[in-house]
Design a protein that fits this description.
Elements (H helix, E strand, L loop, with lengths): L5 H9 L6 H9 L1 H21 L8 H17 L5 H6 L10 H14 L6 H4 L8 E7 L14 E6 L5 E4 L2 H8 L17 E6 L2 E7 L1 H10 L15 E6 L2 E6 L12 E7 L2 E4 L4 H9 L6 H8 L7 E7 L4 E7 L2 E7 L4 E7 L2 E7 L3 H10 L2
Parallel strand pairs: 1-10
Antiparallel strand pairs: 2-5, 3-4, 4-7, 5-6, 6-9, 7-8, 8-14, 11-12, 12-13, 13-14
Length: about 375
Amino acid sequence: MRHLSEGTLRRIYDEPLAMAAADQAHYEGCAACKARFETVANLSRSTAALLALPAFEVEARPALARLNSRIQEEESRRPVRWHERFLSGMPGLRPLAAPVLVVVLAVGLLAGFSATGVLPSLIKVFEPHSFAPVLVSPSSLPSSAALLDFGTASWIPAPPKAEQVADAAAAAALSGLPVLLPATLPQGVSGPVTYGVIGHTTGTLTLDGARLRASAASHKVKVNPMPAALDHSTIYVSGGPALVELWGAPAQGSSGAPTLVIAQTRVPTVESTGASTQQLEDYLLSQPGVPPDLAAQLRAIKDPSTTLPIPIPAGFATTKPITINGVQGLLIDAGIAAGVVWEKGNVIYAVGGQLTPDQVIALATSLH
């Protein structure tokens, strides 16, 4: 007698109503096929139980909270960076996410001058009117770089400090810059607007090779000797004022980032009594701890005395030159955010936020 195949027995288990009449008649009268059917059925039930999984539910908010908690924990263990010290003066700017910070970093570099860091010292003796992207890989930077003492620094009347003001009229009066408004706001961007001002400041730094050697020794850091052409040269920095406008700034103590940032600052001027731009650049880029790829990019800038390097996190954003309001600018696209920076009439402008490149370009060209 020809018995039913295993495939037929499996179909009987899966779809009993689909049995052919001949197979049904055989099955009803065959004890062997019924026993084999029970084996097939038991195997199928066991397999189904093993493959059964609970319903998968995405819990986005708890996952984001855990991620933010981990980021905050890791951030609390590292030293405070110079640009964060600048942003801490204005509560609305503190929560800026990395892509948005890239957009307004030009203003931060100009208004947050530091006389003792490496990167700020690379832009001495200059008056920037153009911009060059510089890719920076966080993994290549020292995790805990020492803040060395390059000489005697002073500020008149005081170090640059961001001050939040009540309204547009106060911002214009305090900065001497016009409050710029776009013709229309993109969807998702709304008020109220937060205003911040950094006043005009003049600073001096007298380079001192002996103080640098002592500072390096106290931090157990090796530095190259300061050339005679730089030692005891005095550098004069004049920066600001600057005005920053924020839409959608999160409340103090909460996380998030503004949806739109419009910033402007007077072009700074830097002068030296002896050290030239090239001498400063050659010396500072030769110091241990400066990543070779970063040094190569900065050396490749054709005219460092008129070009402001814009740090771009490698792998997180792309840039391209663009014409804005009749002048050359730089467009930054970070995927979830974008921005543009340009200089016109001796004022540097930056527009950016959680927007697309087309949106920031439209905003920049409509400012009045």
